[in-house]
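Readers outside the structure-tokenisation community will struggle with the description of the input data as it stands. For illustration, here is how one protein appears when written out as sequence plus structure tokens:
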Amino acid sequence: MYLREVKNWSDRKGVLYARVDVPEFSEVILRDVIIMSTRWWADFMSGISALMGEKALRPVLYYSAYRMMKQHNQKGVMKIIKEGKLTRKRIFEIACDIFSTLGFGEVRSIELIGGKIRITVKDSFEARGRRADAPVCHFVAGILSAIVEDVFSIRTGPLVEESCAATGNDFCTFSAEVMELGVNSI
């Protein structure tokens, strides 16, 4: 996916849209977008954490992102799967390109080892510009969990961040127990 432009709507000041090219498809217009720096995101999360506590923040971010992605997958990923024109591996690659182009980070690897799924991400947006004592990429974990479940028709337990760039690691790594393998597993 390639970001072509971000502009204000001509008739709506303060409302942005983005034009993007999605590989093997066509141009897509994201009709209402915001631009937020990772520093703003980190400050925003710090404020919520101070209000709710870090333990309460994780499930809110994770399940909000998971639910959001599941809803969007119905319009995108699941529709593409039903068409049957692309392999699930290729669909996952495209989803990872979109994830990266939108600034969430770069999915470097995904593995299925001994009943566990493991995903490595470089430059997760939640870890950029932030230092922490514990993993902070809860929103990214929710997005990735929904994508993996839907693309590969598997069911997993929660995707948990095991190591995080915000704590000084080079990458963020996530893992989840596979509860049910699908016919199109990784």
Notes: The CA atoms of residues 6 and 63 lie 28 Å apart. The chain has a mean pLDDT of 89. The first strand starts at residue 2 and ends at 9. DSSP finds five helices and eight strands in the chain.
